[in-house]
Each structure stands twice: as structure tokens, then as C-alpha cells.
Specification:
- The structure holds two protein chains of two kinds.
- In chain A, strands 5-6-2-1-8-9 form a six-stranded mixed beta sheet. Chain A has a four-stranded antiparallel beta sheet with strand order 4-3-7-10, with no helix packed on it.
- Helices cover about 20% and strands about 40% of the residues of chain A.
- The radius of gyration of chain A is 18 Å and the shape is globular.
- Chain A has helices spanning about 1-10, 45-55, 70-80; strands spanning about 20-30, 35-45, 80-85, 90, 95-100, 105-110, 120-125, 135-140, 145-150, 155-160.
- By secondary structure, chain A is of the alpha+beta class.
- Chain A has three helices and ten strands; from the N terminus they run αββααββββββββ.
- In chain A, strand 5 (about 95-100) and strand 6 (about 105-110) form a beta hairpin.
- Chain B is mainly α.
- Chain B contains nine helices and no strands.
- In chain B, helix 1 crosses helix 8 (about 130-160) and helix 2 (about 20-30) runs parallel beside helix 4 (about 70-85).
- The radius of gyration of chain B is 17 Å and the shape is globular.
- Classes of the chains: A alpha+beta, B mainly alpha.
């Protein structure tokens, strides 16, 4: 009986709230500049909580007392969880900046990639340590073809193929 | 995989998920009074729920409605409790009555508001307003239809094969839904 009650209470801890644990990354390979340009959409509270628990620093995004190193903290945190390999070689992303719209933070990233790339291996473990039901979606367009990866805790890496 | 399929899966898993218990229990409460032969009415009731749900979602995406999140999270289990209690009344058990459709639609409006805060994730920065939203909502509907299919299967087993009275079925599931709803109400108490 105690077990049942515990089960119900732990299940219902998330009920009513029915939280939506997801991040979405959209990217495009620009053939002119030969760069892969990405923006990642994350919920502001998830990002703030994640950075707080790993660095003990409060970002206070969108507030007057925003952390002076907010960009560095975000860049380190995001790039610590997100990586892409092109034809088996790890890419070194450059953090371009961030934008805040409503309660969502847009994080902009960029890296040089040859437009002839045939394979991109995406890993995105963002918030997997915080939520069991976190899903990270990554959509990438190369030469007009969009390929999409649905990443979750049990399956954090996926290779996208472009013809 | 195409982006369409990714968002379809996201919507489906949003419903077929232990964290979606509030959604699932509401569907159980909504359908508890029906018999397997009324399957079309069950699907209709759930579809009215989806319509209400989508309506407030869309309105809130355009910033036309804004509500206190804590209040909505409290009201969602209230709608489950009210639906379960209504199942005990004569009107609630009337198989021909359209009241269930109204309840589904109106309470769907409230459930939609519960998700409104997350809606920007699917619309902001997307190339087209519907590009992520449409497959996501289709996935939600697929998930709901799966739950309805499971309920119908259980109904057939219990009511038609094991001769459980539909009255007992109704009491069992309305009671379960009401009990959980009371629990969720206390957990989401906003006052």
C-alpha cells in the first residue's frame, strides 16, 4: 500500500504541470560562406537551472542583474552537450550569440563545413541529466535537403545522410 | 527521417508518456459511461476535446489569451473530477445526450491553456507557422486515438466477454479518475 501511494505520488509529481521537455535546433549549410549555421531553441528556465546546477552561477537572463559572463556560461554549457562530426571529424563550433524571445533562448552557433559533406553525426545530450523525458530535435538542411534527428536519453546520437 | 516525422513523433510521445497522466485520466473519465457499441461517440467526444485544446493553444500563440499557469494547473484536475462526478448523474450516463461533447470541448479549452506556455517552442523561428505545429498536433491526436483504442479493447474484454455491467465499469473508472483528480488538485493547490 505504501509502495502504491509512493508510486502514485511520484507519478503525479509531474501531473497537471505536464511539462514539455524539448529543445529544437535548426541549421543550414550555407554554400557561399561554406559554414554550417545553427540556432538552438531552449527553454530559458531549463537553461538557467542547468547552468546553475553545474556551475552554481545564476544567469538571470532578461533581468537587470544578468550575469556578466552569461554568454561564456551559455556557450560552455551548450557546447559541452552538443557536438557534430562531419565525415567522422569533430567540428569546433563558434558561439555567435543569443537572443531571448518570450521564455525561449535562441543560441546561435557556426562552424566551417564543406558543402560536399555527405554525413553529419549529431550528438545532443542537453538536459538528459535533468529530465528522463527530454527530447532534442535537430533539423539540418544541406543543399535544399532537410534531415532530422530525434534524440533522447536512450539514443543521444544520430547520423544524418545527405545525397 | 523528415522533420515532419520528427514532430509527429514528438506530439505522439507527448501523450503516450507517463507524464501525460492528466491527459490520459481525462480521456478515461470522459469515456467511462460509454459501452463498446458507442465507439463512434467516444471518438467524437475525444475529437471535441482536441478541438477545444487546439483552439486555446492557437489563441494563446497569438497572445490573445493569457492565464496564470498555476491556476490552469489546478483547474486541469478539477475538470477531471467534475467529469467523473457528472458520470454518476442520469444526464451524464445518457448515451444519447450531447452533453459529453460540450464537456469535452469546454474542458479541452482549459487543458489547451496548460500547454500554452510551451507553444513558442514549436512556432518561434520556424520557417512556416504550421511547419512544426501541424505534425505535432497530428501526433497528439494519434496518441489520443491509441489511448481510445486501448480503452475500447478493455471495454470489449470486460463488458462483452466477461459480462461486466457497464454501470460497474463506469463506477470503477469514474472513481479512479476522481480519486486521482483530488490528489492532483492538492498537489497543484494555487491559493
Amino acid at each position: 500500500m505504501n509502495f502504491l501511494l509512493t508510486l502514485i505520488l511520484s507519478l503525479s509529481g509531474t501531473v497537471g504541470a505536464h511539462n514539455f521537455h524539448v529543445s529544437i535546433t535548426n541549421g543550414e549549410l550555407n554554400p557561399k560562406t561554406e559554414t554550417l549555421q545553427l540556432y538552438m531553441k531552449v527553454f530559458m528556465d531549463d537553461l538557467e537551472d542547468g547552468i546553475k546546477s553545474s556551475t552554481n552561477k545564476a544567469l538571470n537572463l532578461g533581468k537587470p542583474n544578468v550575469h556578466p559572463q552569461a554568454d561564456t556560461l551559455i556557450s560552455n554549457y551548450i557546447l559541452g552537450h552538443f557536438s557534430v562530426k562531419a565525415n567522422g571529424k569533430e567540428l569546433n563550433f563558434r558561439y555567435i550569440g543569443k537572443e531571448i524571445e518570450q521564455d525561449i533562448v535562441f543560441v546561435y552557433l557556426e562552424v566551417p563545413v564543406k558543402p560536399t559533406v555527405k554525413e553529419l553525426t549529431i550528438t545532443n545530450t542537453l538536459f538528459f541529466d535533468r529530465f528522463d523525458d527530454q527530447s532534442n530535435i535537430v533539423n539540418i538542411e544541406v543543399g535544399g535537403e532537410v534531415e532530422s534527428a530525434f534524440l533522447e536519453k536512450s539514443n543521444p546520437t544520430r547520423t544524418l545522410h545527405f545525397d | 527521417m523528415s522533420a515532419f516525422n520528427t514532430y509527429l513523433r514528438l506530439g505522439y510521445e507527448h501523450i503516450v508518456n507517463p507524464a501525460a497522466l492528466d491527459h490520459i485520466i481525462f480521456i478515461v473519465a470522459l469515456t467511462a459511461v460509454y459501452q463498446p457499441k458507442s465507439w463512434l461517440k467516444i471518438i467524437l467526444a475525444v475529437t471535441f476535446f482536441t478541438i477545444g485544446h487546439s483552439l486555446t493553444l492557437t489563441l494563446s500563440a497569438f497572445d490573445l489569451v493569457k492565464f496564470d499557469k498555476k491556476l490552469i494547473e489546478f483547474l486541469i484536475p478539477v475538470t477531471i473530477g467534475v467529469t467523473a462526478l457528472f458520470n454518476l448523474t442520469k444526464a451524464g450516463q445518457d448515451q444519447k445526450s450531447k452533453s459529453k461533447f460540450w464537456i469535452a470541448g469546454v474542458f479541452g479549452l482549459i487543458h489547451g491553456l496548460g500547454f500554452a506556455n510551451y507553444y513558442g517552442m514549436l512556432t518561434l523561428g520556424e520557417t512556416k507557422y504550421w511547419s512544426a505545429l501541424l505534425p505535432f498536433n497530428l501526433g497528439v491526436e494519434l496518441g489520443q486515438l491509441l489511448i481510445v483504442a486501448i480503452i475500447l479493447l478493455l471495454m470489449v474484454i470486460f463488458q462483452m466477454m466477461l459480462n461486466t455491467k457497464s454501470q460497474s465499469w463506469n463506477l470503477f473508472f469514474s472513481g479512479t479518475a476522481f480519486g486521482l483528480a483530488v490528489l492532483f488538485c492538492f498537489q497543484n493547490w494555487p491559493f
